[in-house]
Amino acid sequence: MAHYNSIRNNAILTGAALCLLAQGCSIFKKTETPAATINRQTDVVETKTPEQTVAAIDRVLYGEWTIANVGGMEVTGEERPYLIFDTTAVNPFEMKLYVNDGCNYLNGRVAVTPKGDIRPVNDFLSTMRYCADAKYELGIGTALNSMAHFKIEKISNDYILYLKNASDSTTMTMRKSDLTFLNGAWRVSVLDGKNIPADAEMQMVIDLPELKVHGNTGCNILNGSIFVDPAKQNSLQFSNLATTRMACPDMEREQKFLVVLEQVETAIPGKDKDTALLKDDHGQVMMQLTRLNLPKQ
Hints:
The protein is α+β, with helices and mostly antiparallel strands. 19% of the residues lie in helices and 38% in strands. The strands form two sheets. Strands 1, 2, 3, 4, 5, 6, 7, 8, 9 and 10 form a ten-stranded antiparallel beta sheet that branches. Strands 11, 12, 13, 14, 15, 16, 17, 18 and 19 form a nine-stranded antiparallel beta sheet that branches. A hairpin with a 5-residue loop joins strand 17 and strand 18 (275-279). The longest helix is centred in the first third of the chain and has 20 residues, at 2-21. It holds the Pfam family META. InterPro entries: DUF306_Meta_HslJ, HslJ-like_sf, Hsp_HslJ-like. This is META domain-containing protein. Residues 63-174, 183-288 form the DUF306 domain.
């Protein structure tokens, strides 16, 4: 029975991990573009040359950004306005832009060119709904229509995007977490300061684009959700955790694993690309993960 469970658990994890690598899955964006250039003295993503700008577009600007500040006003609440930059197949320096301003959805196109320039290509289309409490709508609209320059900083695992007007004044600030180092299959190697042997099969697959976690507690199958707090640096939280209900030889260790998962607040890379550290709200390392090299099928 133990051998059967081991085969079943590995098959589940392998299937989940292979989904991350399959063509069309949302975790990896297919591209030949080299990595973005980051100035190590200023932590700013370089966009001086066309090559640097294309890399910044494909590797950093692309994707969803949570709006953190509009016109000097901090954005708060759980449901925050956001922007999504999407590339076009025609022009590498032109991007589609989708916006949720807290009330309406807008879409348009922007030109992103070297030396940190960004400008609307056309007028933004809006759903034109009326919302009585849309306190960020006007500021976001002003920032979009007056955008002329941008700057991106890399701070720890987060990118900060500053949208500026022609006077180089910041009109809107956005944040995007770069937790791509966590995508994939992992085994728990240290749990609350105690080493966990590989044959314990305490494993999980982290799927950040889908905000899901799947795995095994060492006995039971685990599924849950992931939440990334846009206001918190290096944020990573697990919620809605559910497991199967088989009786296990070491229920205490399984229970500890589930409790620690609920205590996780942040994540950072470990000593190399094959390790990651998950911390609680006091900054204490609660779990160390070691990457699993699953067999290819």
